[in-house]
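In the design runs reported in the main text, the only information available to the sequence generator was the tokenized backbone. The following block is the verbatim input for one such run; it is reproduced so that readers can re-run the procedure and compare outputs position by position.
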């Protein structure tokens, strides 16, 4: 539901949904959506921190890689 709100141009409404979803299932797809919403709301530092956690946990992260291709400015400083 959070991603639907974001696609409808309602990132504030999307945020709570995605935070809840990520708390219940912290996978990289939800993390990528949450990071994009955070970035759109001007909370890029939080988005980078979230991305850094995913990159540390997983060696295979295609959704995060796709996100970083679209938004290279979200690449955490410690990322390869």
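Verbatim output:
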């Amino acid at each position: 539901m959070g991603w639907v709100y974001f696609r409808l141009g309602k990132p504030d409404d999307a945020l709570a949904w995605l935070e809840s979803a990520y708390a219940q299932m912290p996978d990289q797809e939800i993390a990528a959506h949450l990071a994009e919403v955070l970035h759109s709301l001007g909370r890029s530092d939080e988005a980078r921190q979230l991305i850094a956690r995913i990159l540390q946990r997983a060696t295979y992260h295609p959704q995060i890689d796709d996100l970083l291709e679209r938004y290279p400015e979200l690449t955490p400083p410690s990322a390869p």
